[in-house]
What does this fold into?
Amino acid sequence: MDELKTIYERLLHPVFGGEFHIDDSGEDRNWTAVTLDGGHGHFYVSLYGTGCAHLYWCNQCFLFDQRRTDLVSSDTYDEIVYEADFDSEELPRLIAGLVMQLKDCVYLSKKETVTGTIPSGYDVIKEYAIRLKAKDAGRPVYRLANITLEFV
It folds into this structure.
């Protein structure tokens, strides 16, 4: 996990500076928190090993899990689920890229469109269109597999 923490620090600390903090100090927890807002609890990543991460921003949760097809609807309810395959080495770059898009933005709305079901049939696959208010006007649409960010 130390190598993973180093990767996230290299990718995000230069941008967030003093607001960036990594915490894995809980004795009984099996995850690491990467805080991006100085500990306010509105912008952070929870890392569960190398193949699963939850990115929390503006009361929204982006779920990245290599075992996506094992998840059921109760695991993904009200989450924004990344549906593309990825390897554990790619995950930090995916997260950092999304974080850079969300930074300095405010959540406005989310539209979900069901496009299929996972092989087990216990959950649906969705496309997400998320509207954000950005500080800098005129930002282009950002697309990450089935997740689209539209800036206003």
